[in-house]
Amino acid sequence: MVSKTRSIYERDLDRGPANYAPLTPLGFLARAAAIYPRKTAVIHGPTRYSYAKFYARCLRFASALKKRGVRPGETVAVMAPNVPAMLEAHYAVPMAGAVLNALNYRLDAAAIAFILDHGAARVLITDREFSDTIAAALKRVKKKPLVIDIDDPLYEGGQRLGEKDYEAFLDEGDPDFVWRPPADEWQAISLLYTSGTTGNPKGVVYHHRGAYVNALGNALAFGLTPDSVYLWTLPMFHCNGWTYTWAVTAAGGTHVCLRRVDPALIFPAIAAHGVTHMCGAPIVLNMLVHAPAEVKRPLPRPVEVATGGAAPPSAIIAAMEGMGFRVTHLYGLTESYGPATLCAPQAGWEELALPERARLMARQGVAYPTLDGLMVADPKTMRPVPSNGETIGEVMLRGNTVMKGYLKNPEATRAAFKGGWFRTGDLGVRHPDGYIEIKDRSKDIIISGGENISSLEVEEALYKHPSVMEAAVVARPDPQWGESPCAFVTLKPGAPPTAAADIIAWCRINLAHYKIPRAVVFGPLPKTSTGKIQKYVLRDRAKEIV
Ligand code: ADP
Q1: Would you tell me which of 93, 421, 455, 507 could form a disulfide with 516, CB atoms 3.0–4.6 Å apart?
Q2: H or E, element range at 90
Q3: How remote is the CA of residue 331 from the centroid of ligand 1, in Å?
Q4: pLDDT digits over 345-381, tens only?
Q5: Residue bearing the CA closest to ligand 1, atom 9
Q6: Backbone dihedral angles phi then psi of residue 102, each to the nearest 5 degrees
Q7: Domain that holds residue 315
Q8: Do 463 and 378 share a domain, yes or no?
C-alpha cells in the first residue's frame, strides 16, 4: 500500500532504462566516434588516427581479452609510458568488464611482483622499455599472467617477453564487439597502487561513476572543448592521468602521446600539433622553465597547463606565465581520482602584478565542481577550522570522486573514511576568501621548539632566490629544538657561486627567525616517477649531517 505521507513526486515516477543509466566514462568514446569519426583522436610520433579507428581498436582489444577468457571483475595490468596502447586500455579493459591496473613504471621488480600478485592480474601488457624489470618480476610472481608486448617502433631496445605483440593481439579481436555498460556504476574500473613509501603499496579502487564524474569535472575545470589538443606530459599511470584519459575523449579533443617527459620533445610537440592543454607536476614545469635556450621555442598560442601532485612554488607559476603558459593549479590524491580542488581565478586577479597573482594561484583553492565536500578540520573533533589563514587542520574530502576503498585492506579503508570523510593526511588552512592552502603533509611538517614549521613555506622562500632551481626542506633532529629545518637545494645552471651562508641570509630577510634552515645542502634532489621530491630520502640524509 502506498503511504499517504509520500510526496506526489515519489509516486509513479520510477527509475527505469528510459531515464536512468549507470554512469561510465566508456560511452565518451562511443559518442566521440559517432560524432567525430574522421577527426584525429590520437597522435603518436608520425602515427595519427581517427576517433573511428580509436574506437575500433578498443573494441578489438576488449573482444580479444574476452576471447582469452578474461572475465568481468578480473584485472588487466599495463606497464607502459604514455603510448596509444595505454590509452586504449582505459577503454578496452573496462569494456570487457575487467579492471585496469596501470603500473608505475619506475617501480622495481619486487614491487611490481607484489602488485601483480595482490591485484591478481590475469593479463599483463608491457612495453619493451621495461622488459628488465618485468622479466625479474615475472620470475617472482605466484601466478604468471598472460603477457602481451607493446612493440613500439618509437623505442629501440629492451626485449619482447610475452606470447604476442599488442597489434597482433588486437587482430584476434572483433571490431564489431558489443560492449555493455556496467550493470552497476559502483563496479570497479581501475586499480592504482600508492607509492608505498611506508611498507607495501595500497591498491586504490575506482568505480565507473567516479571516473565519469571526475572526467567531466576536469573538462569543466580546465576548459576542454572539441578543439583541445592535449599533450600527454602527465603519466597515464598516475591516477589514470588524473582521469584526463577519459576527459579529453569526453570533449572530443585530440590526445598527443609522449613516451618521455623531456623539454626537447615537449616544445616541438606543442609547435607541431598546436597543443592547447597539458598537465604536469611542478617539477615538469620547472624543467620547461629551465630548459636550455636552444630547446625552448616560442609558443604559437597560449597553452593551458594544469599543475599539481605537489605544491607549485609561486616562482614557478610566475615563470611559466611569463613564458606564455596559462597555469591552473589543481590538488588531489590517488584516492580522489587525481584533482579534487582547483585554484579558481577571480575577477581582478588578472590586474595584479605577476608575483602577487602567482602567490594567490599557489593556493590549492576550492572544491572541484564535481566534489561534494571539502573541509579543513580538526581530525579529532571533525570541526572545521576558522577561515583565518592560520589555524591548521587536516584537509578532508567527500563525495562521488573519492575511491571505493583500498583493495583487500579493510582496516586502511576504515581508517581513511573515519568520521564520514576521506582524510587526506595533508595539513592546511582556510583563508578568509574560502580558499584552502596546504601547509604540509602531516608527516613532513617540522616541529621546532613546539612550533609548527611548514616545509612548503620555507621552500616557497627558497624558490624566490635568484640562483635556486629546486628546493626541498625537511626536519632534521636538533638537540636544542627537537627538530630544525634542513634545506636541500639545486642551483640553476650557470648560477653564480652560492654558499650556504648566502641562502641562510636570504631566508633571514624572507622568513621568521625560527623557520630559517640551520643546514643547507647543495646537489640534485631524489624524485619519484610522478615528480615528487622524496622527502623520506632527504630526511635520512639530514640525519647524517653533523
Ligand atoms: P603519492 O602518495 O605517491 O605521492 P598521490 O598522487 O596520491 O601519490 O599524492 C597525493 C599527495 O600529493 C597529496 O596528499 C599531497 O600531499 C600532494 N599534493 C598533490 N597535489 C598537491 C598540490 N597542488 N599542492 C600540494 N600538495 C599536493
Answers
A1: 507
A2: helix 84-95
A3: 7
A4: 999 999 999 999 999 999 999 999 999 999 999 999 9
A5: 333
A6: -80, 120
A7: 261-441
A8: no
Which residue owns the Cα nearest ligand 1 atom 25?
A: 311
The domain total for the chain is 3
Ligand 1 closest atom vs CA 438: 25
Cα of 455 vs centre of ligand 1, distance in Å, is 14
Render the burial of 413-446: b for 16+ CB within 10 Å, e for the rest. Answer: beebbeeebbbbbbbbbbbeeebbbbbbbeebbb
Regarding whether 199 and 58 lie in a shared domain, the answer is yes
DSSP 33: H
- What are 153-209's pLDDT values in tens digits? 999 999 999 989 999 999 999 999 999 999 999 999 999 998 765 567 899 999 999
Ligand 1 surroundings by CB, under 6 angstroms: 194-195, 308-311, 329, 331-334, 364, 424-426, 438, 441, 530, 532
* Cα distance between residue 407 and residue 77, in whole Å: 15
Question: pTM of the entire structure?
Answer: 0.93
Residue with CA nearest ligand 1 atom 27: 310
Structural domain includes residue 5: no
394: three-class secondary structure by DSSP = strand
* Same domain as 329, residue 196: no
Phi/psi at 222 (5° precision): -110, 0
